[in-house]
Amino acid sequence: MTATIVCPSEADIVICGGGGAGCVIATRLAQARPDLSILLLEQGPDNREVKRLNRPLDSLFWLFQHNPYLKWIDCEPEQELGGRQPRIPVGNILGGGTSINTLMYNTPAASDFDDWNQPGWSYGDLEPLIRKESSMCLVEVEHSVSYGEEFAKACRLVLGDAKECENITTYRMGHGFGRQPKLITSDGKRSNVADAYLHPCLAKKLTVVTGVTIDKVIFKGNEAVGVKVIGNNLPSASFGTNEKYTKTVKANEMVVLTCGALGSPAVLERSGIGSAEVLKAAGVEVKVDLPGVGHDLDDHQLICPMYRATEGYYEPFDRYARGDKTVKEPVDEEYERTGKGIAASNGFDFGMKIRPTKEEISSMGPAFEKYWKRIGADKPDKPLYSNVILPYFYSYRPPPEGKYFCIGGFHNYNVFCRRLPFYEGEEPDSHPRFDPKSPARLRTSDDPNRTDKPVEEDVIPYSAEDDRVIELYVRENVATAYHSIGTCAMRGRDAMGVVDARLNVHGVKNLKVADLSICPSNIGSNATSIVLLIAENAARIILQDLDAMNGVRHVSAKL
């Protein structure tokens, strides 16, 4: 494998986007077909240039400190969110999100893939690939936050019939709690897809170019024959100069877009593939009227309420985040010497997946009952809600003085936290502003309302006014979980689809999309395990198609 900032003029397969999907596909193709020249193009720099990203805890807190390897996408103001303008980050470095994310590993329900209803993409089809992707990246680490038993005890009080298990990240676990695996290597470093797949690859005809932006796909008739790229105005991304310029790269066999759910549809639109109305308004000549391009962006809703914790109860993550030298220096010294300690962790050690009870379903009204019946009532592997407990202040706000913990989840489930013995009340700015007289009011360390009783014996009653306050709070605080999918959906063209089950873009030839944008419906998990499975299956499909194409050419030559 050759890594460079000098872009060659042609390759057999041109893969556009060096995130998780691109790294996997490039590696698998190069390993299986060493006779083919494989070119992987990435806008950001080589991840090996950024040593800080290897350090799990330090790189996680860097997310909240203007990490330059994140690119922020500003959305339009949203009326349903009180006029807020959501922002979505994407990885801008080789390895994509896996090089800069929170190092959390989770898996969806097996039935999520069956729900796609696409040939070759059922859970049964994908299951043989799971061992390949998990063995490349997933490693358990030695350090574990010291409140594990307290977490388990609280879950037993709250969840009742939920299964207590050693590992909650299985494709069949829909209702349980236990340990949360993470993407950290056995020597205490971030496990990202570039390091796990790409860099160890010894294929001589694999070339990785960093510092190039994909402008558009080049066509001859309706066949993709290459891409136009732009050299960036950055030292690590400049084709050897500091000035932007363009270059056309020929693709002898195929172009594969792996620019992610926010990047791939933009490349298609710049190439003239998308809604004719949108393209004409932007002054782009329409090549294929494909209204589904960029249309169905989906994600998970995330709220992270923070709670005060008893000082000294568990490891000093907050003091590390604030840069307290009395904590940070010895922790970093231990990490440099041994690769262990809290610096070798992300703190995401325990989590849960929850399905609603019959009483909860009924209490949420007929609209929810109809939704749940459609989505997951008869699918026991499918949770409604997932979360992890974090032993620190998890926010883009600067961490305040004191000790905190956070429940980061796809829905807010406040009943859990009062049953932790180190709970000292809520952090006010991350919670609903209940009336001080309400039983649901925010608590302080002087009035924590702590309990060790089961839920049914100690329920906080919520009034209609409390519900109104919660709704307002959600509108003001809910964010995406940065798990963007669905913008080039794998469906029929008449169903707002963009690619078919073989990942071919409708209406053209020799152009595939193979990243999270192809998901035709949502997946109940963090993105890493999903993108790895998509990429492994995409590589298998591409190899099959290449064999078929070569067979046709061989027959034609004989004729």
UniProtKB/TrEMBL annotation:
The molecule here is called Glucose-methanol-choline oxidoreductase N-terminal domain-containing protein
**What keywords sit in the KW lines?**
FAD, Flavoprotein
Entry annotated with the keyword Flavoprotein = yes
Q: Name one Pfam family in it.
A: GMC_oxred_N
MF terms per GO, please? Answer: flavin adenine dinucleotide binding; oxidoreductase activity, acting on CH-OH group of donors
> Which portions of the sequence form the region Disordered?
428-455
- Annotated Glucose-methanol-choline oxidoreductase N-terminal domain residues: 91-114, 260-274
What's the superkingdom here?
Eukaryota
Gene3D superfamilies, per database record: FAD/NAD(P)-binding domain
Q: What is the lineage of its organism?
A: Eukaryota, Fungi, Dikarya, Basidiomycota, Agaricomycotina
> What does this protein need as cofactor?
FAD
Family from the record: Belongs to the GMC oxidoreductase family.
